[in-house]
Amino acid sequence: NRTLVRENAVNANWAPNGKRLVFQQPSDGSIRTTAVDGGKGSDTLVAVSGSEPAWSPNGSWIAYEFNGNIWKRRVNIHGTASGAPIQITHLNGWLVGGPTWSADGKSIIFNAGVSEDIDLWSVPAAGGEITWLTGAPVFGDYGPATSNNSTVAYASFSP
How confident is the model at residue 28 (pLDDT cuts 50, 70, 90)? Predict the structure, then answer.
């Protein structure tokens, strides 16, 4: 049976313990978390603005896109943010989105490009140089998702 967890929420992603969701609230563009199935804790604010949030495998961080870059923010088990948001990439003029964490939490995989040619990239979770992973010519690759091993699934479009 379907159960409404939270209205005004898109791009939801599970906390590793399965007790909370992180999501974007479209009415104001914020990133928030909420309890699932009567879990403890109220809604929390992670970032005032951002999109496509993803919880780290160890539950300590939430990565998201903001202003064409990947950012992360430390959170606790109840989704309460601490410290300032940390900018992970520094990509001026790029189209960036879809961050997901590697299974070991050491890197963040995302889709990005400077035109309609969007490819998959990786960046160390601590920040640093980005590494190209794959990309179809012209149009591109989107929505990376990782499994419990090193496998990355994604959507690709090429004419």
Answer: very high
